[in-house]
Amino acid sequence: MRGTLFYKMSGSGNDFVMLDGRATRIEDWPAAQVRAICDRRRGVGADGLVMLTPVSPEAVRMTYWNSDGSHGAMCGNAALCGGRLAVHLELVSAGEFCLLTDAGTVRVQAQASAGRAAINLPDFEVPGEFTAVSPGRGERWMTLLTVGVPHLVIRVEDIEAVDPGARGRSLRFHPTMGPEGANVNFISPAGEGWLIRTYERGVEAETLACGTGTVAAAVALASRGDALLPMTFRSRGGPELTVKAHLSEGVATNVWLEGEGQLVFRGVWEGV
């Protein structure tokens, strides 16, 4: 059969094209090819591309590209989906195993039959309020955290009044975010849980969910005393994400993210 077999997966609406690393190589996927397969009109369509390559019976290497072709160190929803697919493809046995990412080792708990998974993220520092940028109208405070990749978390009064495309883009490229910029996550309460909307760098648009951004949001809220862990978030994509963590002396430890990892379809990409 010509072409490359791929798997399309969704993590709360954050969608990915997934590849089996036993059948293709990293060097086969330059930036132009990544952009082509992630294109929503001429390609499969996705927020990112993921390659899973077995390293040992208990570990899988996860290589991640954003839809613009740039490499990403980590993506929470991609890790949830990658964990589920690794079990489905029998790269590892169901249960607990490791994903090796550019942001460190991520422990995964995934079963063969469930449509959800859980990932244990590396510890990270929890800074105080971010004051280099003044909050805009309807924004209460900001915090800049790195959960594998940087996230600017903004507590807003009304999440429906937010324009992630305009406000998110302006903050994502703000000089204070550094040369690579940051993802921008807007959050507001909803009953006993929280709502979150995300402008994602590398996609350069609002995405339907953001796993590491949800972790950043939960830890930011907990560090300020605005909410208690564990916390549940609902993104634009629907299925909820749950965050558990322990905070002590400005560091988040034993950080877990639980959410959807759903196989949607499989197909053959004729471009490679």
Task: Describe, in plain words, how this protein is organized in 3D.
This protein is an alpha+beta fold and 272 residues long. It has two domains: 127 residues, Diaminopimelate Epimerase, Chain A, domain 1, CATH 3.10.310.10; 136 residues, Diaminopimelate Epimerase, Chain A, domain 1, CATH 3.10.310.10. The chain is built from four helices and 18 strands. It has an 18-stranded mixed β-sheet that branches. A hairpin with a 6-residue loop joins strand 15 and strand 16. The longest helix is centred in the C-terminal third of the chain and has 14 residues. The chain is globular, with a radius of gyration of 18 Å. The protein starts with a strand and ends with a strand. 46% of the residues are buried. The model has no long low-confidence stretch (mean pLDDT 95).
Structural class determined from secondary elements: alpha+beta
Proportion of residues in helical segments: 10-25%
The H/E string reads: EEHEEEHEEEEEEHEEEHEEEE
Q: Tally of extended strands?
A: 18
Q: So, CATH architecture of the largest domain? A: Roll
Report the major sheet: 18 strands, mixed
Please state the overall shape, judged from the principal axes of the Cα atoms. Answer: globular
CA gyration radius, whole angstroms: 18 Å
CATH homologous superfamily grouping of the largest domain:
Diaminopimelate Epimerase, Chain A, domain 1
CATH topology of the largest domain: Diaminopimelate Epimerase, Chain A, domain 1
Strand content: 35-45%
What is the name of the CATH class of the largest domain?
Answer: Alpha Beta
Please mark out the parts with pLDDT under 50 across 5 or more consecutive residues, or reply none: none
| Average predicted confidence as pLDDT | 95
Report the span from N to C terminus: 12 Å
How many structurally independent domains?
Answer: 2
Number of helices: 4
